[in-house]
Each structure stands twice: as structure tokens, then as C-alpha cells.
Amino acid sequence: MNNYPHPIIAREGWPFLGIATAFAALATFFAGAWSIPLWIIALFILQFFRDPARVIPQNPNAVLSPADGRIVVVEKTQDPYAGREALKISVFMNVFNVHSNRAPVDGKIENMQYFPGKFVNADLDKASIENERNALTITAVNGQTVTCVQVAGLIARRILCYVKTGDMLMRGQRYGFIRFGSRVDVYLPLTAIPKVTVGDKVSATETILAEF
After folding, report:
1. List of residues 6+ apart from 82 with CB closer than 8 A
2. Largest alpha-carbon pair distance within the chain?
3. Catalytic choice (35, 65, 182, 203)
4. Which portions of the chain are predicted below pLDDT 70?
5. 211 and 196 in contact (C-beta within 8 Å)?
6. For the segment 110-169, what is each residue's pLDDT rounded down to a tens digit?
7. Is 182 considered catalytic here?
8. pTM for this one?
9. CATH-assigned architecture of domain 62-211
10. Interior/surface letters 92-129, b for 16+ CB within 10 angstroms, e for the rest
């Protein structure tokens, strides 16, 4: 199943790409080969804001990765947003990963909490509680609680979230974006079975993080 309503380049990147391309084109016209660094910057912006379609696994018990990146945490800990003990799985996104965020489960958003904060390296554990973040508490269709938290990173300066409390989410649905390096934490019931380990590379929607 494919759930992708946007062009292959994320809409969040259109202004950045347009400005970078315009400057590079002007530099080419006036300065010739001296414009090469500007074209390199434009290519970097193009790859950063790519947002390809993804195939959604059909396993009804699967919890899907909400982001591309590398697994940095798989542990039992406290879910501070839903007030429970939980299995936490964290995905770290560097500047070369796709930064579109997608829903890990089908369900209803029960609560959304935004916290201003710092911008320490999102690869560090303390980023989960110190950095700027936006948390969605979701009741999955099977009644289980899933918390999905967008966490800003070292150079990320804007978390974008396009859903609100009361909205229904579909697995793989694109619901947000974080600019320039970040992290997504997923808190699951302790009975969930992890399917990834620290160091694994994952793809948003296509990788199964855990199973209920």
C-alpha cells in the first residue's frame, strides 16, 4: 500500500531550494565556475528535502518506524508523556536522512504536547528530555498506547507537525517534518516485542520497529 500525497521533494524545502538555485544560477551567469560551491549547496538542499513514497507493511501488529535514520536506543524506561513504564525506541536522523515523519500506527491522537527546549546533539540520550520536542499520545486501533515524540537536534530549529488532538492517523501517513538533524522517540507498551537493535539503519514506514 502506498500513502503519499506530496511530490517527491518535500514541500517544506521548496523555498530553500528555490533560493539556493536562484543564487547559483545568478552566480553562474556573473562568475562562471566560481558558482560551483553554490551549486553544491543547492544539491545538498535537494537531497535533504527529498521525500520518496514508501510501501506500508501489511502486518496489523506492526509498529512502523516514524523516520529514516539509525536506532540509538532500545530500552525499558518511563514514558513522561503518558505516565507509564514503556519500551522506548529512538531513531536518530542525520542531515543525510529523509526528515519527513510518518505515523507508526493506525489510531487516534489523544493528546499533543509541545515543549520548548535546548538544541543539544539529538544523538545524546539527554536530548529526549532537554531539547525542543513535540509529543503525540496515540491510542492505536487495538487499544494500545503509543507515544511518538519529535525531538529537535543540534542544528534543527523547527519542528513541524500537521496534526492535532482528536485526529485519526493511518500507518505511514506523513504528519510532520524536522529541519536539519533530529530524532524521533517512540514509547510502546512493555509487552511490545522489539524488532530492531541499537545501530540498525531504518526507513520510515517500511521498517518494523516492534510488534504488539
Report:
1. 137, 145, 147, 187
2. 63
3. 182
4. 1-7, 119-124, 127, 154-157, 180-181
5. no
6. 999 998 877 666 566 776 777 889 999 999 999 999 999 999 876 656 788 999 999 999
7. yes
8. 0.84
9. Distorted Sandwich (2.70)
10. bbebebbbbbbbbbbbebeebeeeeeebeebbeeebbe
